Automatic annotation (TrEMBL):
The keyword Acyltransferase does not apply. It holds the Pfam family LRR_8. This is Leucine-rich repeat-containing N-terminal plant-type domain-containing protein. PANTHER family: OS01G0149700 PROTEIN, OS01G0162200 PROTEIN. InterPro entries: Leu-rich_rpt, LRR_dom_sf, StomDev_PlantInt_Reg. Keywords: Leucine-rich repeat, Membrane, Repeat, Transmembrane, Transmembrane helix. Residues 1-20, 122-146 are annotated as: Disordered. The chain crosses the membrane at residues 206-227. The keyword Transmembrane applies.
Length: 696
């Protein structure tokens, strides 16, 4: 580009005096001297006098003008004093120059840096005194020289290694280092042209544009890499967790998905202990599972939940589902009826897991498998689960309320060590058909594989199980809750269970009388309410329960007569009214012969029951168990009844030592028996309660 300003004269060599002794030289050794093996002459920066002529300050190069303040511009607009002296001769007088202001100092510092002195000088902030140069010339000289700027006086003080101070007058600024006496410096002078423009390629603008171009290019490349290798990044890029070990993006996404859709009670992995079954399951899914699922796999969550169950229930102690019992459980790792849990196979093939045609888990049957531990609430994540069969294991703790978010149709948690109140959410399961919670009032040892047996004791489940809410389970067909600690009265709403076929609530603490509405359960076949605290009488409406096959009310505090309507229950097979206090009274009606399907008649320990044994009882051809001892019944056992006692009719009762019992021993040893019976298998003393087996 053509420059309209007049060119400055060609630089010329000027011999300039030096304020230093003969043993000083320049900071930089020139190129020719570097090639010489002898002690070299030096290129000396001697003085930098005023160089700015009276012209527009904006004509200065941009990188100089940046450091000039408004005050600087004003101070520097003065007549020029001549060319910039970049060289010196030790014999020439120094030019009469001076530095005017702090701004000039800043400008001169910038100017000196542009003259390749940046390796030898540094700026000193206004008001400070500090070293500017500290440099040893070369290995041929041990002399040392340093220079400082005193900003209060605007002069340079030079210090020789000998310790003496070499001060410049305010006429100029000099920087030098010592040389030997036999070396003569080469003096060079050049003129500074403020109107000269900096080359574009060396300008700040060029540097900025270049940096922006490189930045944009790098960003474009990065975007291409991200979208081109997205899956690899997800699996391998490391993310730093605040409190845990670094994790991959794959694991981070899996964690987030599980926390959002599976973990209950506001749980997060960051707050879990490493021994937590949920954390162990995560580690297995991420690091050990050979399938290496990602968040895009539809079975990720259900596989994780099954892993949680495995770790919660002490998988290594299982009877089936582990390597130790492949043969007895018909399990192989690759094929066969079932596969091992936490194996590389699809989870639908694992032992006890049932899935639909879409591969979604719909059932878990791990009964009698030595499961040890509590039920994790995360089981609620199996959204399509219908069957939950965990009976006869070593499961303890409470039933998580989250479990009843599912559309379960069958729940079997019987014969475990569960405790606590059954959550109210249970009664919202409109699809529930079977509920088996019996047998949790127990104690015992849970045999663990790698540890000592775990002793567990439970008082069973508790709460108002048969309260008003029970009427909501209108699709219920089987309800077994015996051997627990349930209490409360049997609510009239129980009559709304029109589909119920079996009610088994023995050995609890239910109280109150039987509601009349109980007879509305027209499909009920078995009613087991023994060993409670039920009072009152058998409702007359009992006769409407035409499907009833078993009526067990033993071990309560009931009273009254046996209602005549009961004898119209022609499908009745078992009538258990024993051990009631004060007990039933009256006589056994001759209508008992209408119970043609009766197999068990158990009336013992009702001390107020009187009368004789009606001969119509002989019409009950299927009768195989009669217990009439510890009552006030007298007379002689009818022959029609004795004809039923042939042992060939009682093979099904091999577990029982006796099947036909009455007070047929001498009363109190000396008195005649209450009931003469020649066909009884067991005779008892009415007074002493002593019973003896009789060999018929």
């Amino acid at each position: 580009m053509e420059n309209n300003r007049p060119l400055m004269p060609k630089p010329e060599v000027i011999e300039a005096p030096s304020p230093f002794d003969q043993d000083t030289c320049a900071i930089e050794v020139n190129d020719e001297a570097k090639k010489s093996s002898s002690p070299s002459p030096a290129k000396v920066v001697g003085y930098i006098p005023e160089v700015v002529q009276e012209r527009d300050v904006s004509s200065l190069p941009p990188d100089f003008a940046d450091d000039i303040t408004e005050k600087t511009k004003n101070d520097m607009a003065r007549p020029a004093a001549g060319p910039e002296v970049l060289g010196c001769d030790t014999e020439a007088p120094a030019p009469d120059v001076s530095m005017q202001t702090n701004a000039n100092v800043g400008f001169l510092s910038k100017l000196m840096q542009s003259s390749r002195m940046n390796n030898d000088l540094q700026k000193v902030a206004p008001g400070e005194t500090g070293p500017v140069v500290e440099k040893t010339r070369d290995s041929h000289s041990s002399s040392h020289y340093s220079s400082t700027i005193d900003n209060d006086r605007f002069i340079v003080k030079s210090h020789h290694s000998s310790g003496k101070e070499l001060s410049l007058s305010e006429k100029g600024l000099a920087v030098a280092c010592p040389v030997t006496d036999d070396e003569k410096p080469v003096c060079v002078a050049s003129e500074y042209d403020p109107s000269a423009k900096t080359s574009f390629y060396k300008s700040t603008t060029c540097h900025i544009l270049t940096a922006l171009a490189l930045l944009l290019t790098g960003a474009a490349v990065a975007v291409g890499v991200v979208f081109g290798t997205r899956k690899e990044i997800e699996e391998n890029v490391i993310v730093q967790s605040p409190t845990m070990m670094p994790i991959t993006h794959r694991e981070a996404r899996i964690r987030q998905m599980i926390e959002d859709n599976v973990l209950e009670r506001n749980a997060t992995f960051i707050d879990m202990k490493e021994a937590d079954s949920r954390y162990l399951a995560l580690d297995w899914i991420v690091n050990e599972d050979r399938l290496q699922l990602t968040v895009t796999d539809p079975n990720l969550l259900q596989r994780y939940i099954l892993a949680v169950l495995a770790f919660s229930f002490d998988l290594i102690s299982w009877e089936c589902g582990m390597v130790k019992d492949l043969d007895s459980c018909n399990i192989t790792d690759n094929y066969g009826d079932y596969s091992l849990w936490l194996s590389r196979t699809d989870e639908c093939a694992w032992y006890g897991v049932e899935c639909d045609n879409s591969g979604v888990v719909t059932g878990l049957d791990l009964s009698s498998n030595n499961l040890i531990g509590p039920i994790p609430p995360e089981i609620s994540g199996l959204r399509s689960l219908e069957l939950l069969a965990f009976q006869e294991n070593c499961i303890y703790g409470t039933i998580p309320q989250e479990m009843f978010k599912l559309s379960l149709s069958e729940i079997d948690l019987s014969w475990n060590y569960l405790s606590g109140t059954v959550p109210d959410e249970l009664y919202g399961l409109k699809s529930l058909v079977q509920l088996n919670l019996h047998g949790n009032h127990d104690e015992g040892n849970c045999n663990r594989t790698d540890q000592e047996p775990l002793y567990v004791e439970s008082q069973g489940l508790e709460g108002d199980m048969l309260g008003p809410s029970i009427g909501q389970l209108q699709n219920l067909e089987v309800l077994q809750v015996y051997k627990n600690s349930f209490n409360g009265s049997i609510a009239s709403e129980i009559g709304q269970l029109n589909q119920l076929e079996k009610l088994s609530a023995n050995s609890n603490s239910f109280k109150g009388s039987l509601p009349e509405q109980i007879s509305r359960m027209s499909n009920l076949k078995e009613m087991w309410l023994g060993n409670n605290s039920i009072t009152g009488q058998i409702p007359e409406s009992i006769g409407y329960m035409n499907s009833l096959e078993t009526l067990s009310l033993w071990g309560n505090s009931m009273r009254g007569t046996i209602p005549n309507s009961l004898y119209y229950l022609t499908n009745l097979k078992a009538l258990h009214l024993r051990h009631n206090s004060p007990g039933f009274w009256g006589t056994l009606s001759s209508d008992v012969g209408k119970l043609v399907n009766l197999r068990e008649l158990v009336l013992n320990n009702n001390p107020l029951l009187t009368g004789t044994v009606p001969s119509e009882l002989g019409l009950c051809r299927d009768l195989k168990e009669i217990r009439l001892h510890n009552t006030q019944m007298t007379g002689t056992m009818p022959s029609e009844v004795c004809n039923l006692t042939a042992k060939k009719l009682n093979l099904d009762y091999a577990w029982s030592e006796s099947f036909f019992e009455a007070d047929c021993l001498n009363d109190n040893v000396t008195l005649p028996p209450f009931l003469v019976c020649e066909c009884c298998s067991t005779c008892c003393d009415h007074t002493t309660k002593l019973c003896l087996n009789i060999d018929i």
